[in-house]
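Session log. Operator J.P. requested a structure for one protein chain; no other inputs attached. Running the standard single-chain path with token output.
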Amino acid sequence: MTSKQLSGILLLGVGGSLLGAILAGILFGIGCWSLCSFGFIGKSDAIFKVKIAIVAFMVLGFVLGLLRGIRMVH
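Structure written below.
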């Protein structure tokens, strides 16, 4: 495996992580904002849930991006 392939795999992982964070921020943000607006959850709970979702989707996107990059090389 060359350094160019390794950097490409790492770039796919970072791109997947960024995409996961953006999607989680938008979708969970809208969902928690609407639940908070209707009074189902508190504001601090909504913020905490969005933060946890962003971290989880960042890790998931990074791992899936790495797996995709590794499969492309082999």
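Operator note: The longest helix spans residues 3-37.
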